[in-house]
Inverse folding.
């Protein structure tokens, strides 16, 4: 039987917590990491009713998209729904885990799920994040260069877009003099040694730094490894906010709105005026996405699909695209299917339950 920690650590590898936004609070929020888990409830939000559903289904863990705790709780007196929900989870011994903006910011996350529902292809991140890449330069004896490279690739280094196992090598001569306390692989204590070496350079995501350095040290023959790291300013095409892609065939705007309602199971769509153009290039952002309107325009999207757009933000469409606000809950509810698929692939011995409690606080009349 797997533990809470094993399940949450796996999800943390899929969407590293270091990728969450500064205001967020993703991760294990309530519960004992060592607790055994046989049943997991998957939900968008956690409420008191969701805790009741989890208890009824004998779930030891709830995996949610939205954290029930956004800010630090100074007391637990049951004075509001957040405190009551946390108290109930503790009483029922049900662990609460959230994977939020870190899942929004990975290429295979929330926005990819929306794109899948809409049948979009040729997907790209709408606003790639900067300072998410680093470069490692390490000096290796020629005979061990391939071994070290393979270890780095296995740990996640050397991926640039659709290209894997990317590295640059240059030849040179390394020199060193081992001290009397050293245990040199090559050379003798107190004597200057010169070795034909290869400088291997690879790019990697910064959240993999520890794994990359551990792999390097394990594969490298030297007692002391000569290497250095550089932070890069390059955009990282695998990490960032929003996504855009292409419909298989152009559609007129009204037909696309009907298609959108069908695929996303919508009751209504708030939108800016239609422009009388064909729709093929579509940008999406699950949840609150007004901050990406300019990015969607820059990407030459015909439609931008998101939620929580304020009145004055609709004007930012500026007749260059159509903004479609489909609702926060509606834009992210299929994240549950994403969690289900990820956990089913890894944990065949755990019973997974898609939450049946409708947590959407917004109703339509």
């Amino acid at each position: 039987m797997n533990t809470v920690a094993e399940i949450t650590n796996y999800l943390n590898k899929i969407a590293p917590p270091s990728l969450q936004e500064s205001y967020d609070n993703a991760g294990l929020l309530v519960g004992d990491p060592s607790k055994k888990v046989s049943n997991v409830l998957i939900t968008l939000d956690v409420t008191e009713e969701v805790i009741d559903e989890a208890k009824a289904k004998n779930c030891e863990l709830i995996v949610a998209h939205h954290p029930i705790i956004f800010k630090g709780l100074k007391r637990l007196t049951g004075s509001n729904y957040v405190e009551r929900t946390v108290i109930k989870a503790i009483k029922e011994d049900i662990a609460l885990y959230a994977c939020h903006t870190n899942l929004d910011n990975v290429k295979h996350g929330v926005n990819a799920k929306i794109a899948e529902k809409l049948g979009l292809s040729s997907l790209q991140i709408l606003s790639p994040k900067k300072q998410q890449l680093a470069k490692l330069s390490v000096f290796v004896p020629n005979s061990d260069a391939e071994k070290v490279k393979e270890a780095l690739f296995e740990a996640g280094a050397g991926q640039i877009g659709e290209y894997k196992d990317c590295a640059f090598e240059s030849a040179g001569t390394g020199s060193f003099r081992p001290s009397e306390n050293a245990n040199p692989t090559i050379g003798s204590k107190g004597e200057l040694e010169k070795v034909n070496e290869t400088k291997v350079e690879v790019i990697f995501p910064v959240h993999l730094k520890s794994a990359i350095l551990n792999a390097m040290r394990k594969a490298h023959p030297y007692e002391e490894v000569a290497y250095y790291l550089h932070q890069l300013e390059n955009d990282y095409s695998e990490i960032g906010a929003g996504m855009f892609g292409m419909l298989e065939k152009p559609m007129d705007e009204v037909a696309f709105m009907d298609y959108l309602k069908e695929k996303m199971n919508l009751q209504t769509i708030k939108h800016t005026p239609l422009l009388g153009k064909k729709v093929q290039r579509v940008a999406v952002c699950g949840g609150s996405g007004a901050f990406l309107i300019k990015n969607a325009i820059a990407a030459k999207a015909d439609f931008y699909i998101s939620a929580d757009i304020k009145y004055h933000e609709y004007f930012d469409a500026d007749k260059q695209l159509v903004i479609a606000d489909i609702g926060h809950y509606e834009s992210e509810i299929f994240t549950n299917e994403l969690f289900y698929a990820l956990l089913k692939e890894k944990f065949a011995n755990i019973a997974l339950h898609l939450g049946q409690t409708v947590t959407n606080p917004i109703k339509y009349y």
The radius of gyration is 25 Å. The longest helix spans residues 253-264. The chain has a mean pLDDT of 96. The chain has twelve helices and 17 strands.
